[in-house]
Amino acid sequence: MIEVFDATDLPRAREAGALVAGILQTLKSRCEVGTDLLEIDAWTRAMITEAGAQSCYVDYAPSFGRGPFGHHICTSVNDAVLHGLPHAYALADGDLLTLDLAVSLGGIVADSAISFVVGESASPESLALIRATERALSAAIAAARPGARIGDVSHAIGTVLGEAGYRVNTEFGGHGVGSTMHQDPHVPNSGRPGRGYRLRPGLLLALEPWVMADTDELVTDPDGWTLRSATGCRTAHSEHTVAITDDGAEVLTLPERVPAV
């Protein structure tokens, strides 16, 4: 299913995006050495509830997971890159943490992810991974204009990641959002320009470059959810929800849209 909204829906989409951005920035400010992943999940639940919103993850049970997910946020540490299931783990100095959050507010979903290093010991490898995904995300946003095709966006992401020396996994990538979290069109993190669905105003897309330092192969934890690099290398993931408008892509999940919750 592909949902296309009209201009009257954009304020609700902006509110959902601002909420997700605010929660993520609050969580980032609270995460320090010794913070437990289950604390992060509890903080997230409280902020979602206080906002009168709904988590997209608690009842999430796709075919590839061992559902339902049962938590409010994905917490992926070091070699974990996607769908990190919160569990009892105290963050250590130098851990590379990815927080991925999707929330429904006013009937519209916003989805975003940030990667950052906890504490003071940020390795060059970790910083390079994070910066590469952020650059790829910026390139994707620039390419997401009305009349462009999904392949143009995918190509922009893949070009940046490839030039940074990373191999690209296209098994999981960006996607449409709307009244539900995961919709068509799928947005792979590599592709051929000029191919695929043509973007049009009113389309909401979650764009999410992610990489692993020395592989493009994933393995799944015994929890049935957490996806890790097959080699144990570090990983990073950056994501924004954008609205396609007549003028280009409006980023709905920028943190400066709203002060921290």
UniProtKB/TrEMBL annotation:
It comes from Geodermatophilus aquaeductus. The lineage of its organism: Bacteria, Bacillati, Actinomycetota, Actinomycetes, Geodermatophilales. The keyword Metal-binding applies. Keywords: Aminopeptidase, Hydrolase, Metal-binding, Protease. Substrate binds at H83, H182. A divalent metal cation 2 binds at D111, H175, E208, E239. Its cofactor is Co(2+); Zn(2+); Mn(2+); Fe(2+). One of its GO terms (cellular component) is cytosol. This is Methionine aminopeptidase. Belongs to the peptidase M24A family. Methionine aminopeptidase type 1 subfamily. One of its GO terms (biological process) is proteolysis. Binds 2 divalent metal cations per subunit. Has a high-affinity and a low affinity metal-binding site. The true nature of the physiological cofactor is under debate. The enzyme is active with cobalt, zinc, manganese or divalent iron ions. Most likely, methionine aminopeptidases function as mononuclear Fe(2+)-metalloproteases under physiological conditions, and the catalytically relevant metal-binding site has been assigned to the histidine-containing high-affinity site. It comes from the Bacteria. The gene is map. Removes the N-terminal methionine from nascent proteins. The N-terminal methionine is often cleaved when the second residue in the primary sequence is small and uncharged (Met-Ala-, Cys, Gly, Pro, Ser, Thr, or Val). Requires deformylation of the N(alpha)-formylated initiator methionine before it can be hydrolyzed. Residues 13-246 form the Peptidase M24 domain. Monomer. A divalent metal cation 1 binds at D100, D111, E239. It catalyses: Release of N-terminal amino acids, preferentially methionine, from peptides and arylamides. CDD domains: MetAP1 (cd01086). It is an enzyme of class 3 (hydrolase). Its EC number is 3.4.11.18.
